[in-house]
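User:
Care to share a sequence and structure tokens?

Assistant:
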Amino acid sequence: MVGHLSDTHLGWYSRGESVKERENDYYDAFREAVELFIKDHVDLVIHSGDILDEPRPLGKAVITLLEMVRELHGRGIPFLYTLGEHDISNIPSTPYPTILERLGIGLFVGGEPRDVRGLRVVGLPRHKKVQRNELLDKLDRIGEEQRSYRGRSVLVLHQDLRDVSGPWAELSLAELPAGFHYYAMGHLHKHIEARRGGGLLSYPGPTHWVDVDDPDECGVNIVDLSGDQPMVQWVRLESVRPKKRVRAREGELNHVIDALLREEHRKKPCLWLEVEADRPRPSPTLIDRLGEKYIVQRITVLPARHATKTYQGLREDSIDEELRRLALEALGGDEGGARLALDELLPLLSDPSRRREASEVVWRHYRGGGWGDKKG
């Protein structure tokens, strides 16, 4: 039996509200997953990337990771892992999770096969879209080696698939090397299963949701590779904080709030509230009332002209869409370039201490052939 988890995002915290509870959500979910694997007597655990939320993580994130992996190690359960984009700094450096191997309590699967408990495990860390050709070359080599192997095997990747997400993904299902019994995937924040030849591919999804659009329920996989066909049991984690997204007109707002306050939850939910109103900002009293039973993540006022405004120091809903439109226009419709600019460069450029990292990203993208045909 194999325990498979992904996208634990240890060290996530809410910069806007500094709610300590939210940081602890990710530690609690990780602990619950490890305890579940121990209780179910799995033979080994595979983590398919985004172990941490930041490449320069919070101290508590590193401590929690070490404590839980040591717990597995002490019970004779090997912990194998690859790296996601959140684990890898844009400035070349040694990723924090590699400390697990240095301490002898974890095994990094980054290209070379690992033979553990009668199972052959091979994998790769996250490759960006601009590294697609390099990724395909590595997968071809892994596929060649796999053809002569007859035992049970697992491929571990932290990549998106076109078959699931669309044409902007790095790979298609058909480009994955054949012959593996199980494909332990990470990166997508939802539970997905698909067949690849005689093998089974699965994203377990995150151990705890990150964004409001992520599925409410999160969990891990228990994978049985003992039979002719691999079987996956997805197990929901109980510690995951509930979340709600509610929209109301100004005239019915008090009624909606009263209804929200009557609800009972085992754990204080996170709340995203959208209010259709002409007032410039929500009343502080409203926020105080909701704060009795909810962690208020965002209150959005939607004026009659439908221009979205967001308060409490949080982003405007319309900004992401407008930035994407402007980026695509500037880059001549280059979807990959727009994603690079918005997802990687923009966060770095907004932090003066990380400007050098932004330069490294641009240079690496240029060397990889990106923007090569752009003028100016």
User: Anything to note?
Assistant: Residues 20-39 form the longest helix (20 residues).
